[in-house]
Structure formats: structure tokens, C-alpha cells
Amino acid sequence: MMTFACAFCGYVWKHEADCGDRTCFRCNSQRIKRILARYIPLLEGMSQPKLLTLTLRNQRLTRGFVRQLRQYFNTLRRRVIWRASGRFYCIEFDHIDELGLCNLHIHAIIDSPFIGQRALSLVWKEITRGSKIVDIRTIYRTAKSHHEAVKYLTKYLAQLPSDLPEWQRNLVNDAYHDVRLIQTFGTLSGKNLNIRDAICPRCGKSSVICLDFEPLREDIYVLGTFL
């Protein structure tokens, strides 16, 4: 829990801080709201928006597995078949089994003319040395479809069960340590997303300061187990 104060009007309020656990439903729900607000405007002006999915064969979820998928995607973007200007992508997984294996995949929103799915599959299979399942489909140029597309990219955040066994939660948090949930690339690489400054809920000014930080009750409980 964080305590904020407005230096302009003096109003004081509390706000729940991100606990840092990538499987936390409360934090993931807040992340989705922030992602929707920041990324949907980036779809404006796209002439041929498409949703691209690239998958890998099941492997154990590790930081190296996540890094490998990102390297494969970078390689694809250097191939002749790639005729797209980038927007952003998200690395996701559907399910972790009892051995820690999962289906890791990339969802990306791109601005691109027609790319044949069969040809794309052959190139992806060659790059990954065996993984061939891909999907590419058109996103209609409407505000509603843009909103739905970004929600599709972030759907796994809301679907992660909060009652995962501790060893699976550790897998997820280790694999996604310091990994951005959504990453811009191509023409938007390094683009400033105009993240808004904190504003006072009473007067609307951005003259906000943090007074203190108080850990959540569950954080204190977890800490106590190590003392």
C-alpha cells in the first residue's frame, strides 16, 4: 500500500502497489487496464492491421525458453517473407503441465499486406527447427476491433489461476523476471507511449508525491515465513 499526497491541494490517499507476482489476479487486472489505455491508440493509422500468432513446441518454461522465442521472432523479421511494419507483441503461454512444460507463443499486431499462412509456416518451421503452427488474420479497422485485439493479446493475464502450486508460480515469475509483458518493435521500437504522470483524484493536478510505502498484508505473511 502506498500513500500519496498532492502538493497543490494537500489531498492524501492510499493506492495498492504492484506486488510483483506475475500470477497475481489483482495486479494483472490493473496491468490490463494500463495496457489497453496505452496501446490501443497505437493501432490508429494502420492501413492493413493483422494479428499474428507464432508458436513453439512444448518445452519447460524457463527464462532461456522465453529469450529463445524472442530471438526466433527477430530472425523472422529479417527474412524476405516479412513485409510488415511492427507495432507490438506479447509472449504468452496457455498451460503448464505437471512437468513444467508449456506452449509458449507470440501474439503480435502488425501492419502488413497479405502474407500466405502456408509460406509463413514453412519459414517459421525452418527458423525454429520444427515448430510450424502459425496464424495470421485481418483486424478490422474499427475502435471496437482494435480494443478486442489488444484484449486478446493480454487475455492470458486474466486467465492465470491464482491457486497455482508454488513451484509453478516460481517457474512463471522466474521466466518472466524483468520481461516486458508487451513489447513494441519495428516502426514503434523505443516509441514513447506517453505514460501519464500520477494525478490528484481531487484537483486533477500532477503535483503528486509519495509519502510512504506499506507492504500488503499477504506480503507481510510471506516475509514472516522466512524470518
Enumerate how many helices there are, as a single number. Answer: 7
Taking the sheet with the most strands, its summary is: 6 strands, antiparallel
What is the arithmetic mean of pLDDT? 81
Beta-strand percentage?
15-25%
| Count of β-strands | 9
Radius of gyration: 20 Å
Named CATH architecture: 2-Layer Sandwich
CATH superfamily: Ribosomal protein S6/Translation elongation factor EF1B
Q: Kindly report the CATH topology.
A: Alpha-Beta Plaits
| Uncertain stretches of 5 or more adjacent residues | 215-227
Order of helices and strands: EEHEEHEEHEHHHEEH
What's the number of structural domains? 1
> Helical residue percent?
25-40%
Secondary structural class: alpha+beta
General description of the model:
The chain has one domain: Ribosomal protein S6/Translation elongation factor EF1B (Alpha-Beta Plaits, 2-Layer Sandwich). 33% of the residues lie in helices and 24% in strands. The protein has helices spanning 25-39, 63-76, 117-128, 143-153, 155-159, 166-175, 217-224, and strands spanning 2-6, 12-15, 49-55, 59-60, 85-96, 101-111, 134-138, 183-184, 208-213. The strands form 2 sheets. Strands 3, 4, 5, 6, 7 and 8 form a 6-stranded antiparallel β-sheet that branches. The longest helix has 15 residues, at 25-39. The model is unreliable at 215-227 (pLDDT under 50).
